[in-house]
Amino acid sequence: MNIVVLAKLVPDLVEELEIDDSGTALDMTWLRLIINELDDHAIEQSILLKEKTGAHVTVVAPDFEDIDDILYTASAKGADRLIKILGDYESGINNHAIARAFAPIIRELSPDLILSGVQAHDDRDGSLGALLAGYMDLPYVGYVASVAIGDGQATITKEYPGGLSAEMAVSLPAVLGIQVAEEPPRYVAVSKVRQAMKTAEIEEIDAGDFDLAGGAKVTRMFQPEVGEGATMLEGSLDDIADELVSILKELGAG
Amino acid sequence: MTAATAPASTRSFNDVFYESLFEVEDGERIRACLQCGTCSGACPFGYLMGFPPGRMIAYLRAERFENVIDSDSVWMCVSCYACTAVCPKEIPLTPGLMTRTKEEMLLAGNVPSELQDALMNSQRYGNPLGESPRKRAEWTRGLEFEVPTFREAKRAVDVLWFVSDYPSYHPRVQLTTRAMARVLKLLGVDFAILGPEENSDGDSQRLAGERGLFEMLAEKNGKALSRYEFNQVITSDPHAYNAFKNEYPKLGIEYPMQHFTEFVAERMDDLKPHLKPLEEQRVTYHDPCYLGRANDVYDAPRTILSAIPGLELVEMPHNRSTSLCCGGGGGGMWLDGFQWEKAHVRLSEWRIQEAVSVNADILAVACPYEPPRFEDAAKMVEGAGRLAVKDIAELLAESIEADA
Amino acid sequence: MSNDIYVVIEHIRGKVSEISYLMLAAGHQLAEGSGGELAAVLLGSNTENLASDLAAQKVLYFDASELADFTPGAYVQCLQGLLTTDAPRAIIFGHTSIGMEVASLLSVKTNLPLVNSCLSFSTDGGSLQYTSQLYGGKILAEGEIPGPSCLLTLVPGGYKAEDGQSSTPPPVTRVEVPDLSGQRITVTQYLEPESGDVDISTQELLVAVGRGIQLEDNIELAEELAEVLSGVVCASRPVVDQGWLPTTRLVGKSGFQVKPKIYLALGISGAPEHTEGIAGSDTIIAINTDPAAPIFNIAKYGIVEDIFDLVPLLTEKIEESR
Can you identify the CATH homologous superfamily of domain A2-206? Predict the structure, then answer.
């Protein structure tokens, strides 16, 4: 059983996001990039499956910034093979371009199952995993909250609103968009990651040039006005609490 | 005990672990454990642990240490040094046994999720609170004067103030930080801070079992420190104090370090003329574990408190080396949820009860974990409604700013 | 190629999801701009009745037993055929567990561009523009909807469901269904949420907790406030994922859409996955220590304070005033 996980970096929302001079993209200067949280769940799910079934896990990621750290951490968690894909990720990259370029590379890995976070907060032109499934002509289901591997198929649960889930049978090979792993992503000690840095190898594969078709241009990127619409209550804690009590009473509560 | 001469591949986890304890300073003393149980008795959560310190050693000797690792008992430990302080054989239980066990728990992936988050944040942002490193010096904005960073100062500065995580970011503790800045300013101290170049001292993370993370943070701090010229370091944080005094030198990072109270106590003659009387109140002082028990600094804070006119200093039943931990150390700050599930009592509440029992009006503290922890606890303890929790720096600042 | 706008209707277990009406409202605006017709595309098995209150000029209906449950494969196959014969100016999907994957897969199959997370559209000056939501709601992006045909996914927040509902049933045209045999994805069963708990979607007053609550124990703070206000506690995803509250209390994308009179958001940042669940609330009051939290964009009243300081005080004062 060959599992491939596709992971990528996204801007960390802890830092304040600023727009660059062109007004059409984020200013990358102070941006911290972290692993897409749902990709972290995808990695965790793959390791859980490895622990259950002895599967082989390969983590594939675009070569950008500190991706090595992410890959070594995945190795420390139990990933068997690490691949970073080289390419020009700066000039207007989008998910179509990545999926299009990665499809033949991942096909070469003969995966039975491909996992990726169902979405990332910097997605503009669709879900990376779904696009990849499209280019690889594989079945895809997103919003997956559990994965069990059977004979030539996976049994998954897909989340719907209202707490409802659907259990589905998906024939393998397939791509799954992970919403949440069956266990929260595990912690791995820094010493283990440091060890992985010494022992694990990150392979490099060149994606070649990216075909950027599939997205839409952005003519303006901006921050919505903060507090627009909200009346901000100010003053001492006591004042605010008093005001809230009267607002609530006015609205018929309390 | 199996001889250490057996080939590595046949040595059990138990043996390997046992020997690793000898690597800590005076670690071999564990061989002399009497199984007297004093450690387990002194431990504030000993009564709840499946394996309090004494029993951990018993299991180690019985070659059943795996049982200890499989339980989550050790996560009740707040690294308060109570056991270490009372052990008749002077075994370094806290830095040795307890810390090493937590390291193994971490390696095995057995980590409560709150602690996981704090460790993740420390790695990513250089502080366990998950705040942006760029905002590390924003606390200075509430001051009437500038506090320069070393990068801004571009010159040799007398004192490097290692501000630390909670004093930098936690809103309640920032009040203390600003008070401390005002006292330093009044004393005419030439000081600067590292600001965004400062990372967590890493000591609590070390005690929570993340040795690798501690070393990574220490490395970063070491690099930042080596860029600048200064004569000494001061801090309000006993954990940073402990790191600089006892741990950083082992990594080749060595600078003279004083706790804020030690620094100020030396300058009382300069300070006294500026101290105006506060309203007459009884103040009791809580010895922080890492300033008191772990580093024997008991007098300096008391010297300062005794010098503030209007304050009557009274001692709680547990004081100095028997001080009751607030529960924040050793990762305890990030294990509250876990520990509450097991204990349904907070250590900080015991301390508040003691303060109330000596009719204190003020509980004076000298560690950044304490103001938020004790204030929270005071809300829960009957009779503690009027008890004020103040850092020594805040009391000094109040006294300085009081009307003559 | 046409100037029509298509909306792919979402329905689960016999009920049209609210997002469908929002999409129709949005589609109506786009159709006015493009000068074409608004068509709702409905796929199902014996579900023609679901078309009755859709505010569209026509309904294109695929009926097949393989469409009884949503599966991405079958939906993509049907829509692919539809788009190949006559690609409309735009096709709107929900940014949901149904729409996202269909839109993405379809984008590859039909080679049509895709813009996700659209909040609203505009048709000023003859061109069709999108405004999309990124980075957890912290950033908006604008641009032209690429022509001649484009796929879009919609997030709630820019339109009202009532603008997508009609009292007159639209005309329904049955579309030929391609051969749907050999599906690689099939539904085996549905798993209901835990029952026996309150139904938050019918509550009048909700006290919501998010990541800011920090510890499971602190939820008590919210419970106490809810009690004095005769309300119920609900939560955003991080709290439910931790197991601190059951999924029946989850508000947002994978949880419930709620429409209380009062929604008190404690320590909730306001990420889209959550706020789309509360768009129907009358009054949102948000408390958060981060003045830049997106929740303040949709709240009526905002307070930048620590919930641990404010909430107990508030609870106390409400109790005193009773």
Answer: HUPs (3.40.50.620)
Would you call C318 and A225 a contact, using CB atoms and an 8 Å cutoff? no
Which CATH code for domain B10-107?
1.10.1060.10
Would you give the end-to-end CA distance of chain A in angstroms? 58
CA distance A209 to chain B (A): 32
Using CA atoms, how far apart are residues A254 and B36, in angstroms rounded to an integer?
A: 58
CATH architecture of C5-174: 3-Layer(aba) Sandwich (3.40)
* B171 neighbourhood in chain C, CB within 8 Å: 289, 306
Give the three-class secondary structure for C9.
coil
Reported as a single tens digit per residue, the pLDDT across A154-169 is 999 999 987 789 999 9
Q: Measured between CB atoms, does C144 come within 8 Å of chain B? A: no
Domain borders along chain B are 10-107, 113-265, 272-401
Residues of A within 8 A of B202 (CB-CB) are: none
> What is the rounded distance in angstroms from the CA atom of residue C92 to the CA atom of residue C100?
10
Q: Which pLDDT does position A228 carry in this prediction?
A: 55
Same fold, C5-174 and C200-321: yes
Which parts of chain C register pLDDT below 70?
A: 195-196
C-alpha to C-alpha distances, B387 to B15, B20, B221, C249, nearest whole angstrom: 50, 45, 37, 38
Its pTM stands at: 0.89
What is the Cα–Cα distance from B250 to B16, expressed in whole angstroms?
23
Gap between the terminal Cα atoms of chain B: 69
pLDDT for the residue numbered B1: 45
Instruction: Report domain C200-321's class.
Output: alpha beta
- Per-residue pLDDT tens digits for B25-47: 999 999 999 999 999 999 999 99
Mean pLDDT of B238-263: 98
In 3D, which of A144, A220, B309 has the Cα closest to residue C185? A144
